[in-house]
Amino acid sequence: LDEHNLEAAEALIPLYEAGRDPRALVRVLEIQLRATSVDDPSTRQDRIKRLAQYNEEKLRDKGAAFGWWLKAHGEDHHPEWIRAELERLAQETGQWPAVVDAYAASVGKYERETGSKRDALPMMLVMARVLETEQGDVDRALAMNRSILEIDDGNEQALDALERLYLGKGQFQDLLGVYNKKLDLTSDGDERIRIQSRIGQLYEDEVKDDTKAISAWLSRRSRAFRPSSALSTFNPFSVRIFDKANRLRMSSSTSRMVLSENMASCSCRVMIISLLAGGMALTVLCKNRLTSSKRR
To answer: Structure pTM?
Structure first.
């Protein structure tokens, strides 16, 4: 069959469709596609879709099907349904690097079309996830997630990714910035307590700044504290921190902390913190379970 003979190829399509030679059918469909003008993008997309489906369903060749969906995306980067097929097959075939490269090119197309990357945000989120979890490219993943936050500064996926990546790289000042951003974005009391607990522990364990570790618990951001929640997140702070807090006697017009004088020597290590914030008083008791069990 002459690969340039469109008339002959199209005449063979119904015969091959009724027959049992899917490879021959794919071959004539490829001839038909090559003869389809780029000025007719809708027809080209229909024919590329057909080739992708035949390769996957009839020839059981997912790699070839992935290649056709990649071509479809290259010719039209807008349809979400094409991206869905592309990502599904990338997951099954492991061809994520090709997806990242294709999406990077498409992000540039969106920017040239509109002057902004905002419409490309769904692809950028996929790229960020793939770079981190599939390719292990930490530096590119960091850069991509930062780019996402430049477009959507409250994007939860990007903030969570930056938290993991900064922690893994030991970039603790940057990690603190992520935590502070998360505090700005949530009004949920329990979530704020969890975030401030991480901030306090980060200052204590990594930054080695005991004063700021204590301040994390006395922040004005902590007005949503409830005793039951505070008790469950108080344990990460060491006795050393409490002893230092006792020496510092931190106080201000909006918050005051008082620790028992015999804290360090108290056999049951009962720690009392009185926090006054926004007119609300909170007393937290931390008891050493071992000594309490001994007393029994």
So the answer is: 0.73
